[in-house]
Amino acid sequence: MPDNLTLTACAKINLTLDVFSKRADGYHSIASVMQAISLHDTLTFAHTAERGIQFTCDAPDSPDIPVDATNLVVRAAQSALDYAVQNGRHGTNGVRIHLVKRIPSQAGLGGGSSDAASALRGTATLLELEIPQKELHTLAASLGSDVPFFLVGGRAAARGRGETLTPLPDDSGFWLVVVKPEACVSTGWAYGELDAVPERQSHRATKRMEEALVAGDAGRLLAFQSNDFELPVFTHHPGIAWLRDELQMAGAVTAHLCGSGAAVYGVAENQAAAERIAGLLRPRYPRTYVTRTLTRAESDPFMAIG
Hints:
Layout: E1 4-22, E2 28-48, E3 53-58, H1 72-86, E4 94-100, H2 111-126, H3 133-143, H4 149-152, E5 155-160, E6 164-167, E7 175-179, H5 187-195, H6 206-215, H7 218-223, E8 226-227, H8 230-236, H9 238-249, E9 254-257, E10 264-268, H10 271-281, E11 288-292
Parallel strand pairs: 1-8, 3-4
Antiparallel strand pairs: 1-2, 2-4, 2-5, 5-6, 7-10, 7-11, 9-10
Helix pairs in contact: 1-2, 2-3, 8-9
């Protein structure tokens, strides 16, 4: 049993995000090509003699992150402990978890979901809990729609409410500039605004993106990037729409909203171009990050991200 453990938790962008009608369970059906990126948080795990979860967080850019039982990290670790108890591991000790938060919150980058996925795997590994992959996926889905993706990583198509995943070819990496403006967007609000649009039609770009990836067609990979949430977010938050334009004027090949926002990502031609674009935007947007897409192996929480 290891004394301590350090894992990464990478962010994601949605290369496509198609939002369909609301389901009977209150969730919306979606189709999305999700992509792991190198911007990441770090979680450190250690044993405690007392049962339960002790959680601390270093998040200078996100002071509003809760450190109580409502935090997804705590909920994920607790679900792993509960699984252990339900399967006869009544003597399991507690876990101390420290999170170093770099992924901005309320950005659409999946930081909380990624932290939860790493907390699940980290707690299970620290305590030597053998949780079958199917059960781990079920636990992840119970925590949030995006959490299962971070058990897969790399590039994958997500359907249903996000829990049905199909891994996709992920060997064609590219550089990005991700910018989180001061504005914040509520995911619930964004869904509500989409539902209020009369006769709204989705871009339905996910299937075309999958075909482009399988064919290795980089040109179509760029052309098919889309996000249905851009309709309400850009309409009601013109500053975020302007940020998208700024990225493109600074040299981004294309730029799109991250998830339901408020961050926006721009695709750069290479690392040098990404650094140059970021340098132009950072004076106005302090939370500007140069990052790159990750393969499935690179986005594994047990791998150090370079």
